[in-house]
Amino acid sequence: MRASSQTSAEKSQSSKPSKVVQLDEYWKASTMKVKDLKKLRERGLLPNPQIYEWTVTKGQDCPTPDTHQAVVFIAHFKCGFGGFPSKFLERICRHYGIEIAHLLPNAVAMLSVFAFLCEAWLGVKPYLDLWHYFYSATYYAKNLAIGSVGFSLKKGNDYITFPIKTSWKGYQRKWFYIQLHEESPIKGQALMPVSNERWR
Q1: Rounded-to-integer distance, Cα 48 and Cα 43, Å
Q2: pLDDT in tens, 99-144
Q3: CA 67, CA 107: separation in Å to the nearest integer?
Q4: Which of 54, 78, 129, 185 would suit a FRET pair with 43, their CA atoms being 20 to 30 Å apart?
Q5: 17-21 contacts, C-beta under 8 A, 24 or more apart
Q6: From residue 11, how far is each of 76, 100, 108, 143 by CA, in Å?
Q7: Nearest CA-CA partner of 74 in 37, 120, 106
Q8: What is the pLDDT of residue 117?
Q9: Considering the chain, what is the average pLDDT of its residues?
Q10: What are the phi and psi torsion angles at 152 (to 5°)?
Q11: How far apart are CA 196 and CA 150, in angstroms?
Q12: What confidence tier does 22 reach under pLDDT thresholds 50, 70, 90?
């Protein structure tokens, strides 16, 4: 299967968002419970709470993060996000003008695979120019929805194939806060992304 961040529920590409709308128009109320994060912790996908702070959000209609919090989906951790943002992820967010809450789970997986290939195969740090050579950013959703930015391979470029999950049903209700004490471009106001020429 050719790597793509588009899932079975997102086969129709809509027009990219071009303006800011109200939070409750595109966020789904959180169903995130403490036990969900404990399971993630047991699998080794979430750092020790003594050194890594997180906050559950069950019942919240939309995020209201403080200045030190970032909004993430539990699916991001299952796809390779380690909790502490890498310099490469920060460059991606800064380049496209997005935050981590904008990304589809498979988009995080694609970034993780690319970073691994650069470090383990090429022996270099993942860098933006090479990523941009292969990929463009795309908004995947039939309606306005947070967590719907993915990446598509540019035409004519050969790339490795790797399996991806074809459905992340319900992932947009599993969001919570992580604490980041330093400034990072992966954080934001949890608003809809606005596309720009760098997405191409």
Answers
A1: 12
A2: 999 999 999 999 999 999 999 999 999 999 999 999 999 988 766 6
A3: 25
A4: 185
A5: 17/139, 17/144, 17/192, 17/193, 17/194, 17/195, 18/194, 18/195, 19/194, 20/191, 20/192, 20/194, 21/144, 21/192
A6: 20, 22, 18, 12
A7: 37
A8: 93
A9: 84
A10: -125, 140
A11: 14
A12: low
pLDDT at 11: 39
CA distance 69 to 54: 9
Q: How far is residue 144 CA from its own chain's centroid?
A: 16
Whole-angstrom distance, CA of residue 171 vs CA of residue 116: 24
pLDDT band at 4 (very low <50, low <70, confident <90, very high): very low
Q: For residue 158, is it left (φ>0), alpha (ψ between -120 and 50) or beta?
A: beta
Rounded mean pLDDT, 147-167: 87
Q: 68 near 184, Cβ under 8 Å? A: no
| Residue among 30, 56, 62 at smallest CA distance from 174 | 30
pTM of the complete model = 0.84
Question: And the tokens for 42?
Answer: 């047991």
Q: Tell me the two tokens of residue 32.
A: 């995130």
* Cβ 89 vs Cβ 147: under 8 Å: no
Strand order in the sheet with 175-179: 54-55, 175-179, 69-73
Dihedral, CA atoms, 141, 84, 135, 175, nearest 10 degrees?
Answer: -10
Residue 62, token pair as written in the block:
């939309």
